[in-house]
Amino acid sequence: MRLLRLALAWFAVLAATGALAQAWPTRPVKIIVPFAAGGPADIYARLLAEKLQASLGQTFVVEDRPGGGAIVGTEAVVQSAPDGYTLLMMSNTHTVNESLIPDKRYVLLRDLVPVAPVNYSDLVLVVHPSVPAKTLEEFLALARANPGKLNYASSGPGTPYHMAGELLKAMANVDIVHIPYKGSSGARTDILGGQVQMMFDAITTMAPNVRAGKLRALGTSGKTRSTVLPEVPTVSEAGVPGYEAVIWLGVMAPANTPKPIVDKLNAEINRIVSSAEVRKAWAEQGAVPLSMTPDEFAKYMREDIEKWARVVKVSGAKPDR
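Above: the chain sequence. Below: its structure as C-alpha cells.
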C-alpha cells in the first residue's frame, strides 16, 4: 500500500510538472544578455525573442546587463526563480570564465542548466589602416620588433575576443598588450578611431567595416575561409598554423528549472535555428546554426571549459579586472 501511495504521488508530481510546462509561458519571459548592446549576443537574443514570441504567444523581453566579464548579468539569472521566466543568453565567455575567474560566486554547470545552443561564427583579426602591416606575417614581425608597444582591444576579460588574442600571443610568441572594454561597441569604436591597433571581432558585426575599407582584415579564425570574407586567409594559413577560435552563443536557465520547460524551450529554439529562413539569413552574416539536446549541449560546454582551461594555463591570461 505504501509503495502504491508513493507511486501515485510520483505520478501526480509528473502530471503537475507536465501541465506546468504545457501552460508555460503565461506571462512575459526575460532574456538577460550579460554583454553590451550591439554585439552578437544582443543581436541574436533579440531575433530569438521575436521568434519565440511569435511561436509561444507570449512577450519575450531582452535586457542587456553588461559588466564584470559577463558575471553581473549571469549572477542576476543565477539568483532568479527557476520557473522559466528568466533566461540567460550566454557565450563561450562563460566557459572561459570557469578557469579565468574561478572566484566568481557561481559555477556554470552547477547553478545554471543548459537549454540550447544558438549559433557560432568565426572571428576576424583586424587592424587600423595606420598600422604598417598588410599581412599577418608583417604584423607579427612588427609586434616582435616592438614588444609591449602594440595593443589589442576586446569586449572584456574572458570574452572570445580576449581569448582569441591571448591564443594568438601564445601560439605566435608575441607580446601585445590587452586593452579590455566594457563591451564590444566601445572596443569597435576605438579601433575604428585608431586608439588601438588590433582587434578580434565577430565576422557577423565587423565584416561591413572591412568591406568599407575602414579596417584591414589580416585573418579569420576558423578552420576554413569564411564565406563572408573569402578573400581573407585564415590565421592558420596566414602564419600561425593550427590556430582556431570562434564565438558561440547559447541559452541557459537557473538550475532546477523544470525539465519539461527546458525541453519545450529546447525544441522551440532548435526549430527556429533550423528553419530555412534563419539559416539563409545567418549564412549571409557568417553565422552557423547549432542544434543539440540539453544533454548534448551540456557535454559541448564541458569540453569547451576543458579546452579554454588549457589555453588560460598556457597563455597565462589574467582577468584584467
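The longest strand covers residues 112-127.
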